[in-house]
Amino acid sequence: MLTNSHWYNNLDMSDFAERLKSSREARKMTQVRFCELLDISPRVYCRWEKGDNVPHLDTIIKIANILQVSMDELVGRKQPKNEIKIRNYELHQLCQQADDLTDTDQKVLMQVIDSLIKRSQLSKMMDNTVTE
Q1: Residue 25 and residue 13: Cα distance in Å, rounded?
Q2: Can you give the pLDDT at residue 126?
Q3: Same domain for 67 and 110?
Q4: Which residues contact 4 (CB under 8 A, 6 or more apart)?
Q5: What is the domain range of residue 108?
Q6: Contact in structure between 26 and 84 (CB atoms under 8 Å)
Q7: CB atoms inside a 10 Å sphere around CB 33
Q8: What percent of the residues of the chain are helix, what percent strand, and what percent coil, each to the nearest 5?
Q9: Which H or E element spans position 125?
Q10: Domain presence at residue 27
Q11: Count of alpha carbons within 13 Å of 8, Cβ hemisphere only?
Q12: How far is C-alpha 69 from the chain's CA centre?
């Protein structure tokens, strides 16, 4: 039986820390927020990003899901794709669930999202006008 602490013995995990950090940063996610999503202490996470320690397999699976990367990309068996679907993990999860809504509910949701985006754009334009 393969123990959880030795699953990565045959993989080159030397660049795991850098892949973890760059994937997290590409999604504009802070360490604190990432730790909240993983339900771990920032101290533990810092050890992973420094390369001092490697998470257990079940945690790596969770990390891959949150970062929207494959396990192979995360552990270095494949080159990472530069395609980030949605940077915010929670928003990504909601969008996947929204795909199951009825057509009518999806149209309402799209109108709400559209209005929020327009309001944000207008606010940015107003801020730029004031500063000029």
Answers
A1: 19
A2: 79
A3: no
A4: 56, 57, 58
A5: 101-131
A6: yes
A7: 16
A8: 65, 0, 35
A9: helix 103-131
A10: yes
A11: 21
A12: 8
